[in-house]
Amino acid sequence: MTELDTTQEGTPAVPVWEYADAPESKDIVHLQDRYGLFIAGEFVEPKSGKYMATIDPSTEGILAEVPEAGPEDVDLAVAAARGAFESRWRDLPGRERAKYLFRIARALQERAREFAVLESMNGGKPIKESRDIDLPLAAAHFFYYAGWADKLEYAFPGRDARPIGVAGQVIPWNFPMLMAAWKLAPALATGNTAVLKPAETTPLTALLLAEVIQAAELPPGAVNVVTGAGETGAALVAADVDKVAFTGSTEVGKQIRRTIAGSHKRLTLELGGKAANIVFEDAPLDQAVEGVVNGIFFNQGHVCCAGSRLLVQEPIFEALLEKLKARLQTLRVGNPLDKNTDIGAINSRAQLTRIEELVASGVEDGAEMFQPACDLPERGFWFRPTLFTGVSQSHRIAREEIFGPVLSILTFRTPEEAVEKANNTPYGLSAGVWTEKGSRILWMAERLKAGVVWANTFNRFDPSSPFGGYKESGFGREGGLHGLAPYLELTPREPAPGNGRHG
Amino acid sequence: MADERLPVRRTAKLFIGGEFPRSESGRSYEVFDADGELLAWASRASRKDLRDAVRAARAAQSGWAAKTAFNRAQILYRVAELMEGRRIQFERELRDAGAEDPVRGVSAAIDRWVWYAGWADKIHQIQGASNPVAGPYFNFTIPEPTGVVGIVAPQDQSLLGLVSRVAPAIVSGNTAVVLASERSPLPAVSLGEVLATSDVPAGVVNILTGFSAELVPWLAGHMDVNALDATGVPDELQAQVEELSAENVKRVHRAPEADPFDEVAQSPYEVTAFVEYKTVWHPMGA
Q1: What is the ipTM, given to two decimal places?
Q2: Domains of chain A, with CATH numbers?
């Protein structure tokens, strides 16, 4: 804390902190040169014969080769899942299924650091996030749903709950392990089997999870992992699966809906967002600033529920902006494996290009951009934390999901105007409200069209808490009791005599 | 002499925003009874009529959802009361439509309103939750109405089938645009007249008569319809409907196949098919 940084005009002077490097060791991770597909309990070479390199986005260095599964591979995986469903998993008593899931949860806890390091290497997210958020939540998710496996008869009043069959699950690159847990845990707990397709850029933790599942001795085929790009995902959606669960972009979600139209496949979609984070004048400003920063810069802003539109009540706009700019200058951008890092690498070159393109449109549309002056590593994919003021609702940066560390700031005067602006989007995944007034929180929460409302907090997740969108952010819920329903066939149960329908 | 008096026939019209317009297109179609005798000319709704109906439903939605659950329950219960007063008319219309047991059909439809009305202030309690998250937060989940629901009523069971789809959709606070049975639209027209004189606010239920093959795709593709009850969609249109629903990520639901008289056909899960679950977090601290 030696000098004051006044490099950029209009930038508040803040102390510059020097940090010693604090890298987490990579020694705990044992990479293979080449991985196989996980089908019927074995790691196998792809029939397609194709492999693709997977890299570390912070260095662009190749970590390993993984298979690019073709339609034939996908069909084999689905057939393995079908076999496991019919021959064993479906009919296993819930208490036994539960114990397999508890085994997975425990193994994830035991090997948490290894998973966290690999997650940060392959995805670019800061180790403090993969270590403290992604992995603990993934393990907790298996633990939570394990407990449901033998209690399903109590979950839905008046209904018998039966599994659907084979679930095809396509997950994104922003939370690879956590999304795998969100998909697999409820599917397995309810007696379904699964074929999981991890994202093109982040296959490695899913393959490590397959090792854990193998070691937990799940029946072969109960879980299968097929790696590849978009075509592999499309092949899985089109394959002989009974249910499709997708987390990813709204555009791809719509394609999937069209692809399986008329097929009787069950579907849940968890898609994009453009969440409003709304700060009222009576909010505790410092807490709100931390919440705003967490809302948009958590995981480089690669978060579907990110608070990417900040709505500030006019009287506190200047004060909040000054604090926000000062806070941005203290964010540490760089090596994902450094324990001090706040903002890691952008996940891929393609994503970086998209962020750059949208940010350029913001400048072109006339919004005012602020970025702190921080050094970026030479290699890898990086983007400085970015604020835009002077944003109008028609700007692309206020309408489109950027999926990067870019915040668009708008103002409002009345609660009604805040609601109007917050809901003025085809999306409806999440929203944030900052105010000390309890009645206003509930008033706002009732009117915001969003599946998750964080009041005086943001980006909190828990296995017992349902998550999912309104409108074009998708349908179905993951997490909690409500996260069971998408994986169950619910059929009427005969009521007790004199107590129900025929009484 | 009284028996020389000529009866006054009803004109079957659309029901949009609490009013009874003819189709703006001026089109109509013939409705026949089970023996092939002409019963009436029904309005053949156009795409413009459908858009008007969606606009009316959207305008009514927030106000309907904002009523207390207790109030919505009372309002829907009153629909049953009014139907009971008109049951002779409904029975005649069902008889004309070829129903086997019109008396039973009307009774079941009335009872269905009563059954669903009661869910208005109970669905939150069986489908909401407070969630024990691992941290100092109060966290709860509540069902909220999805918004505007398009309903393709079943072709058969033109009254009971219709009520079985409309009541669960609106009890939670959704508003509806309903496509009546093409073959037997008259009970739906009469239901519109009942609703118009009930306490259900204008626009909460809008009823269109016309040709399914042209109306269903327009409804499925409409960008301001949030969800679609496809129970009455003919099988040959099902795939097209799901494809069209993709553009605004509509929720598409088909009721499980069941004899509508069987009480299995009424279920709180038909209410929750058209709700969104909202989860709210707040920190706890002194």
Answers
A1: 0.95
A2: 37-271+469-490 (3.40.605.10), 276-455 (3.40.309.10)
